[in-house]
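hey so i finally got around to running the thing on that chain from the lab meeting. sorry it took forever, my laptop kept dying and i had to restart like 3 times. anyway pasting the input first so we r on the same page abt which one it is
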Amino acid sequence: MSAVFATEEPRQELCVAHGEFQSRNILGKVWTKCPACSAEMAEQDRLAAEQKEREQEVQRWRRRIGGAGIPDRFVDRSLRLYEAETEGQKRALAFAEAYAENFDEAMKTGRSAVFIGKPGTGKTHLAVGIGLRIMHRDGRSVMFSTVMRAIRRIRNTWGRNADESETDAIGALTSVDLLILDEVGIQCGTENEKLLIFDVLNERYERRLPTILLSNLGLEDVKQFLGERVYDRLREDGGEVVTFDWESHRGKVAA
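ok and heres what got predicted. didnt touch it at all, straight out
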């Protein structure tokens, strides 16, 4: 069967919205519609597609945040929203900004950091802020966990009906680009717990993957819990201890 090609001359048509327009015969009885209407429909389709993409990106971001283990209370704690008033706070923020900005270099060397100070001084805010920045800007993988939760996850693999293997549990902690471990030293600090944490931190050290440790304890107590060997490795390649020695923000708000 032979194809039917357009043979008729263009004709004038009337669009109730845009007035007269010239319609062309495309094929058989098919004629072009109002170009202004077609353009509007194309724009609507484009905007709808962009909106859908934005919604999907939000969903992807929420899944990434959930997978990172960042507590709901801190999912919006960006570096930009950190309020630095004292000189100490300004230095801590400057460190966090520089660390996030130069995270590619941290990935090359495994440069880590230890944030120490009393509760409510902003340690978690800045650590999470670093994580959010490198996740959003660079697509880096981040995991936030308390030390006790990390230990519990590994121990849970020892049961007969465990959902994951010990290798998988440790791998989740040792494979992410940035691991943030909170509440260092709060747990009882048994030799078994220290050995588990040593295994995680040592493997990250060997793979040159950076870690940020957070603790409410003093530096000597943190050293005692981690052990000199682990602590020295955290300080290699430019690793720093950042001291948060100002008044608790939560305490000020409560007062």
